[in-house]
Amino acid sequence: MGSKERIIRQKEETRCKILTAAMEISRAEGWQALSMRKIADKIEYTAPIIYEYFENKDALMVALTRMGHQKLSCLMKEKSKGLITPEEKIMAMWRAYWDFAFQDKEFYQLMYGVEVNCCQFDNNGVDFELPAELIWDVIEEFPGMKGKSEDEICKIYYTYWSVVHGLISINLVREGAILDQINSDVFNNAINAISNSIK
Known about the structure:
The protein is mainly α. It has helices at residues 3-29, 36-43, 47-53, 57-80, 86-103, 105-112, 131-139, 150-173, 180-197.
């Protein structure tokens, strides 16, 4: 490996270290506690080196938001792989979304603004499909959506998302407030009701 390739690899490794440290701090102390100084201390670098990779904390959080969307997209694709009907696919994708929200709570909070300012990244030129695009594509597969306008498809997407994100947000903010069985029933009933309305 040449010196140029080694430098590129080392830079990427350092960038990954910074992002990993940021996630570890957020998991331990919450997003509000995150600072460039804390990240530098955790990876035993000086703060100015962190700024060589990320202009400021906002830029770092945007990079993490992008990572979260990519991770969620991969999970949704994996869970819906091999399923045939749009009803099966949509349920599997929203179930993956639900699981992600609780397994990767810090990512979800950052991506969707639950108890933290939501980070918006410029999704022009992203090299993966966003979670909303994956859901949108499945909605278009429903027989009742054939020939429908983008506005109508958008309305269905937001109907699904409002129910799922709302239920997730309630559970994240008021942890343990709702019984698992109630969550499961509300989730399944809502997804099935919306899907049945567009068959």
